Amino acid sequence: MELILGLILLLYGVSDLLFRFLGLGAYAHASRRTPKVALTFDDGPSERTEALLELLRRHGAKATFFLTGEKARARPDLVEVLRREGHQVEDHGEWHQAWKLLLPWLEWEHMRRNPGRYYRPPHGLHTPFTRLFARLLGKRIALWDLESKDWLDLPPEALAERLLYYLRPGSVVLLHDGPERTLRLLELALPRMLALGYRPVTLDDLSPVPLTPRLALIRGMQGFEERYNQRHGVRRAGLGPFDLFRVERKPFPGPDLPGMPRGTPAMELHLESPRVMELTPWETIRQVRESLKKVAALVAEDPEVRLVYGYSYLAQGARLFGFRTAPLPPWPKLAATLSSAWFLWLYRGELPKGDRAWAELAYLSREELLRRFPPSTPASPPQAPGAGQTPPP
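Below the sequence we write its predicted structure tokens.
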């Protein structure tokens, strides 16, 4: 009996890991090539649905609402308004009580009672039966690739800043219809999203794709990226859909360069791989040029920084933008090469080729960066919402 119970718990745990945490096979984001995004609201309708509708109407934005059956039947007038104003209405199940999903007969009842082509499980929770039931009911599982965290007791300004930091082309944003915090968050973030060039559309207009194993792995690793950014104070150089660099201010770790010894104040460049993963080479070149102007603007604001640099197998390609290259010592070379190969496979499904497989140092002095890429635009949009670009803790 203990063995059977253990196997059942293991099966439930593996199902939740694969299908909720990684999102394998779920519809969680769309193509990264265009700056369309989907704002999705769970748990409604609520006493704040009308205020949310007014905000969306004011900015010409469309959204998708995942409604629970109990609440939808209690407010059919709001459901009708959602549809009439061009928003998409989908299924969030009958109840929002996670324990009921653990019993297969209740999960079936929960999933079958309400119409919808997309179904989003409460909390994203998956059991070993969730995908089977969805297939039998002809529903697609809809998850997300960006949590607004509007259920946390944090200032809306900090949440809006974080949302703008991690928003990407094709993102599906998880929000909630109910908390007052959500309304304030969107009042701050939505105008900025539009100014940055994002276009909020319904899930159908976004056309999300089911996550392959590689895309699911990318989704699962997002939390590690956020923790790294917080720990190291990594900033984005511009918050636009195709601003391709994050920067980390740190002492230059070497190897020693002429006039630039170890410890020189510097900025390490981190490529925003999810934003470049579907761009063509020519599109990437164009966006890198524009993004380096944003990097230059940050460097111009910090007179102590003497160079920008990065370790990558792409170092030779960086010469196109004026970067110089230098070989790395054996162990840093091996570590940077393995890291570069991993991210190339993860985001492009490819591996380095031929003599460009080994990583090198690519660097540009402060003077040369500012000469080649004079910052004609601010380093970032206006400070509101929030006080800066570093994501909140």
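Confidence is low (pLDDT under 50) at residues 377-390.
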